[in-house]
Amino acid sequence: MRPVSSTRAKGGFSTLIQGFDVQRHVIGALIMRELHTRYGRENIGYLWMIVEPMLLAAAVGALHAKAGGGHAGIFHPVPFALGGYCVFMIFRSVIGRSETTLEANKPLLYHRTVTLFDMLLARALLEGAATLAALVILLAGTWALGMGAPIARPLTFIGAVLLMTWFAFALSMPVCAASYLSKAVGKFVHPIIYIAMPISGGFFLLAWIPQPFRGWLSWSPLNQIFEMLHTSQFEAIESRYFDPLYIVEWCLALTLVGLLSLRVVRPHVHLT
Amino acid sequence: MDGYVPTAEPAAPLDPERPTRVPDWSPPPASAKAPPEPAWRAWLKASRAFLLIVMLPTLTVAAFEYLVAADQYESEAHFIVRAAQSGGGGSSLGQLLGLGGGNPSAAEAYGVSDYLLSHDAVAAARRTIDLPALFRRPQADVITRLWSARPAPETLLKYYRRQVQVRFDSETGITTLSVRAFQPADAHDLAETLLRLGEGRINTLNQRALDDGLSVARRQLAEAEAEVAQSQSSVTRFRQDGRDIDPERTSAAQITLAAGLMQQLAQARSQLDGMRRSIDPASPQYVALANQVRALEAQTAAAQGRLAGSSGSIAPGLGAYEGLRLRQQFAAKRYEAAAQALQAARERSLTQQTFLVRVVEPNLPGKALYPKRLKTVATVFFCLLLAYAVGWLVLAGVREHAS
């Protein structure tokens, strides 16, 4: 149990390599299992993983097709809505599912090598990858239909999606732990996610918000991630309201809180 | 791995004091088999990751900040860009335009802050201040100062943007200019120069707006003026050619004359008719009256011929004259409108005049506020500590898989 064993030096390092190898396989297996249990092998099978978010996002994008009227010509409203919605979907599904992760996968904990961390990470990776794939396909589609342009700053775009996945994963750990310890927490998770959707900045830029609220919102890491995303998508948008380092600091702090909370909750998990 | 083994005890609330559950942060006890080594060495070995990842960078940054980094002084100035509201002065048109045109000062304030951070401002400032030398004072340390003595304009601009900050607050309308330099006087001088450059740019913008607005109105007025003069001269030419000062009055006089003649002719004829019944046509009285009638007939025909008919008669001349008069009236109206437009443009340019008003003059700093040494070191330390803690926990989780 103690991470620093008495056989340090080279022994410690080889343990690390071995452990990393095992964990890699565990997470890979968990992702496959998740795919099986969620989508099965019927009709298009795993493709649902990409099609499912695509259907939702396409509907939302179509709703916003006429909404961005005031800014038409500066950027395309459909890719704007698609980007905001898809990236928010990473946040929503990772956090939303984390609440039930522990209950649903409890039997897996009989295996000594499977940890809560692995389960949550596998889900976050799966959601992030699926949504990113859906988003890229949708953006390519809007480009082909003449309703959008290619992503202006691809590196920033990847950075924004990665940061969102990390942020959602980091936050999913304390949410998972807290909702296991107290059922009441689980009741708050979904309302909070729904409230977060309109104010998180997926569908607007902070520059459009009047002053006192803009100042308050710009402290939120979610808003900063979306500012980064919108900046990466469009040549014409160059937000001054995000700082990648600030987002990374938030993610680091949340990860620390999450890891500690998993350590706290683990002794309370009963497998019977 | 005891955490996942089914335990008999009920799910207890979170209890941090249970010793076995709390992660062990202390170094492990030295192995019994290992040769005895000093306690400090064992401690060093146990915590070497922490020392390497957290303490070493923190100490490096601290050493740089406290031993190498040079003091920087900041001079700050506040100004507002304001449109003059006094331009109206009772003129309702000017006030109306001033209200309708919106407040242009926000755009101009953004313009000034954009200008102050541009290559244009750097180039302009270099004409009075040796910027590279200012950023390479002997007090400056090797790392922070501008590296090259003859920098490319882009390099200088990049460095300049690090030292000069312009923030526009859209709520209060105040723009804050802060300049950092290695000597107090340098910071003050540069801030003062930049303020003057900003003022100059506002004046240039004003001048251009004024010129643009007025030049169009002036040109229109000049055109209208030329047209008035031309129509006037063509009326004069008509008078000279036609030897007629006022064809309207001349024609009126001619009409009166012709009417008088016709009346006389009618009287004479009726007299002659009456006479023919009573008097012999050969009598001298009758002959004289008949002669008078013939003369009147000739004169009437001549007068009517002068009014209309032949090319030299009055009617065509009167038509041409009336056309000229009409054109003259149009030209006069147009001139009036152009003169009003010029007046309006002048008033508008007065109300839309903008000024850079200094709210706070740049100060001569007395104490070096930068670099914020303790803040930088603390930030580095806590960020690394956070990263270390996360890394430690993740790696501990990885190791768990191996056992």
Which features characterize this protein?
heterodimer; A: 272 residues; mainly alpha; 71% helix; disordered N terminus; B: 403 residues
**Principal-axes shape call of chain B:** rod-shaped
Helical coverage of chain A, percent range: over 70%
- Strand order, largest beta sheet of chain B: 2-3-1-4
What is the CA-based Rg of chain A, rounded?
20 Å
Poorly predicted residue ranges of chain B: 1-22, 86-104
- Computed CA radius of gyration of chain B, to the nearest angstrom: 50 Å
Could you give a short account of the major beta sheet of chain A?
Answer: none
Mean pLDDT score of chain B: 80
Contiguous runs where pLDDT drops below 50 for at least 5 residues of chain A? 1-10
Instruction: Tell me the structural class of chain B.
Output: alpha+beta
The chain pair with the largest interface is: A-B, 39 and 40 residues
C-alpha geometry of chain A: globular
Q: Based on helices, strands and strand pairing, what is the structural class of chain A?
A: mainly alpha
Structure write-up:
The complex is a heterodimer of chains A (272) and B (403). Chain A has 272 residues and is an all-alpha fold. Chain A has helices at residues 9-39, 48-63, 77-105, 116-144, 154-181, 183-199, 211-217, 221-233, 244-265. In chain A, helix 1 (9-39) packs across helix 4 (116-144) and helix 8 (221-233) crosses helix 9 (244-265). Chain A is globular and about 60 Å long. With 403 residues, chain B is of the alpha+beta class. Chain B is built from twelve helices and four strands; from the N terminus they run H-H-E-H-H-H-H-H-E-E-H-H-H-H-E-H. The longest helix of chain B has 59 residues, at 184-242. Chain B is rod-shaped. Chain A binds chain B through residues 1-6, 8, 15-16, 18-20, 22-23, 26, 109-110, 112-113, 115, 117, 181, 211, 249, 252-253, 255-256, 259-260, 263-264, 266-272, and chain B through 1-4, 6-7, 11-14, 16, 18, 21, 23-24, 27-29, 31, 45-46, 170-171, 383, 386-387, 389-390, 392-403.
